[in-house]
Design brief:
The chain is α+β, with helices and mostly antiparallel strands. The chain contains seven helices and 21 strands. It has two domains: 139 residues, Jelly Rolls; 195 residues, Glutaredoxin (3-Layer(aba) Sandwich).
Length: 359
């Protein structure tokens, strides 16, 4: 049930780090477990599933893989016809869980893109798109996002979380490397440790195919590595379903907002969201509530146009237009990084705002 916000009181908002969303098989109700969703780089984990040559305990025999079986049952694919368990037999497979508004996943893309190019003969890369927000369930939305992001490897839609559950996964992003006998040999959760993951690929390739060295990438735009030394702000969700994790942030809204389960929706023009943060980058997951609408907005930083601190989705005056539901980069500061007050004013009604993320 939505909560109508008319007269805006002072209240607590929330800032949270990562959590995992576990959806039930019936409706899309969630169990939210804070600190287990999107791992920041400093908290990323790399786990060796087993020493080379040993079976993982959960797999009883060669090729008996519930993980590949779950992938094989999926019906909606992008960039590929459906891949079955039989298609993937005797292949080295890299599986990465993603959702297209996740900034942490976006920053891994330069590496995955280069791995797909470098190892195309010997490694099958599959992106498992397990959505967080409702609009990320839409096949057309995911297809458009993957085209915009220049993702060319196979993407399978996991709207019912069946592949997520088969892998017993808890994170976006998460990487799993399976050998030719369908055994999980390497796991990595979050960003970073790219050379270790690539070295794990090397070890599973045929002797004659093992290359020297590692891919060299330089991410740009939203794919640029975070400025971890200056990143002191955590993700801030704007819907009521996250309110149990409210902490010290003040109420961020002014105007005619309706705060729903996943997002806050603006019913009249001139609504604002403001937030004090400490980070190089600031992003907002948002979009029009009606497909095809265009919502004008204006961004300020400490009350001034952002100028050289503008993100990719605004001009130097801070003006931008939201045309689809996705992550928008609003601020990228050139430095030095200090505490700042961000504000976004929507000049038109009809925006849905989901989450603030930082980098």
């Amino acid at each position: 049930m939505n909560t109508k916000v008319s007269a805006i009181p002072r209240s607590d908002g929330f800032t949270g780090r990562a959590s995992a969303v576990i959806r039930s098989e019936g409706d899309v109700s969630e169990r939210i477990d804070r600190d287990r969703r999107r791992l920041v780089g400093a908290a990323a984990l790399t786990l060796a599933a087993a020493p080379l040559g040993l079976l993982e305990a959960s797999q009883a025999r060669d090729g008996d893989s519930r993980e590949l079986a779950a992938i094989g049952r999926a019906t909606d694919w992008i960039n590929s016809p459906p891949l079955t368990a039989a298609n993937l037999q005797n292949k080295v497979v890299l599986v990465q869980f993603c959702t297209y508004t996740c900034i942490n996943w976006l920053r891994t893309l330069p590496y995955v893109r280069e791995w797909a190019r470098k190892y195309q003969k010997d490694l099958t890369i599959i992106g498992v798109h397990t959505p967080e927000f409702e609009f990320e369930h839409n096949l057309d939305n995911v297809r458009r996002a993957m085209q915009q992001l220049r993702v060319e490897h196979p993407i399978v839609l996991d709207n019912d979380y069946s592949i997520w559950r088969a892998f017993k996964n808890e994170y976006w992003p998460a990487l799993y490397l399976l050998d030719a006998r369908a055994r999980i040999r390497h796991r990595h959760f979050g960003e970073g440790e790219y050379q270790q993951s690539e070295l794990a690929v090397h070890r599973l390739l045929p002797d004659g195919s093992r290359p020297n060295g590692f891919v060299a990438v330089n991410g740009t735009g939203v794919e640029a590595a975070a400025d971890w030394a200056n990143l002191r702000s955590g993700e801030t969700y704007l819907g009521m379903r996250w309110s149990e994790s409210a902490s010290t942030q003040r109420w961020p809204f002014s105007g005619a907002w309706t705060v729903g389960r996943q997002a806050a929706r603006l019913s009249k023009p001139s609504g604002r969201i403001s937030h004090r943060f400490h980070a190089r980058d600031l992003h907002l997951v948002m979009g029009p509530s009606r497909p095809g609408s265009q919502i004008r907005f204006r961004v300020t930083l400490d009350g001034q146009p952002p100028g050289g601190a503008r993100g990719l989705d605004v001009d130097v005056r801070g003006d931008g237009v939201a045309t689809e539901q996705r992550m928008y980069q609003l601020i990228r500061q050139p430095g030095p990084i200090v505490d700042c007050r961000f504000e976004i004013e929507f000049l038109d009604a009809g925006i849905e705002a989901f989450a603030l993320t930082f980098g």
